[in-house]
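Researcher: I need the complex structure. Ligand is glutamic acid. Inputs:
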Amino acid sequence: MAATTTLTNEQKNNHANKASLLESTQTVIHEALTKLGYKEETHELLKEPLRMLTVRIPVKMDDGSVKVFTGYRAQHCDAVGPTKGGVRFHPEVTEEEVKALSIWMSLKCGIVDLPYGGGKGGIICDPREMSFPEIERLSRGYVRAISQIVGPTKDIPAPDVFTNSQIMAWMMDEYSRIREFDSPGFITGKPLILGGSHGRETATARGVVICIEEAAKRKGIDVKGAKVVVQGFGNAGGYLAKFMHDSGAKVIGISDAYGALYNEDGLDIEDLLDCRDSFGTVTNQFKNTISNKELLELPCDILVPAAISNQITIDNAHRINAKVVVEAANGPTTLEATRILAERDILLVPDVLASAGGVTVSYFEWVQNNLGYYWTEEEVLTKLRDVIVKSFANVYDTAQQRNVNMRLAAYMVGVRKMAEASHLRGWI
Ligand code: GLU
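Model: Output:
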């Protein structure tokens, strides 16, 4: 990765985008705390992570050279309990992004009422261009570098963009070796055989589906036959398209980083899932593709941005042609766009609620690890549904009662727990 002094224009844009994500998160946190009647000092405490560690990880590459990677771990607030959140491997990771994502994890944990605060990690790397042994050495190196600030009762990592259960297994093994005892509760999203939970792999998508059903009910939309567009075909987007297809909805558009596919009569999702690669790429195998920009503006009932941030902005919010937008990705809609969608009476289910299914089942996994007693898939899914249905109703009702949009309502519900716990601990 180039040093900060020699950033390309593209890298500068990326940094500016990520910085604005953090700023807009802070703006909404401020608004939420003010509406809840908290003083300025509470905002001062919660506007940034309590702790942010930057690490440099030397990795021996397969060709014998050594590459030094930069990684981060942010811990937003540990007033409620240990911090919790994924680790992403991506070339565009920035410090501001990891900070914003850790704050979002606090909000998610608050909204679904888990005994955690938020944390997040990231490494600037492109796993698509690395071999498995190189990814393993990088994963282990990262755990060694952050080992002092993480642990089953301190900060519990999990998968995120371009990390998976195999990477969690390597990280868990490295941590267990350092501590000299088996520590499955150090990390979630592990393979089943190493203490993973049934239902974790599909949990984010299931949480989104439950939010879609709840939003559809309130908007009088029948999910059966509803036209759905999904941006992104990775872990969340892929399973989500499948579950929606299975429940009788018509998935008319999907996309990956390189383009999008559209069929007004519904796409053959099973077939597309069969031919996608492990990073969710599938459109490169087709000739008649449309752009991601065109995909977002397709007429549909439900639009699900499940890819990257800053997709619905002031430039296209006026042309979004959906009745409901459910954010499966983190930060896909800017604040201006949130306002425009609200004015146009498009119901927006915010990321911090819609994508909280993953961390909810991560919590179930951690509880099972602590108990040493494991649940069936049915038990996990029933508990997940209860949590998401209840959390959706709480945020929706708050939005109605306070006459605010669902994003601000979700922030109000999410941040309250952090503020109250910090107050009870005597910090503010
Ligand atoms: N990375 C996921 C998220 O952003 C899951 C975090 C977790 O399971 O702890 O919600």
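Model: Summary of the prediction. The chain is about 45% helix and 15% strand.
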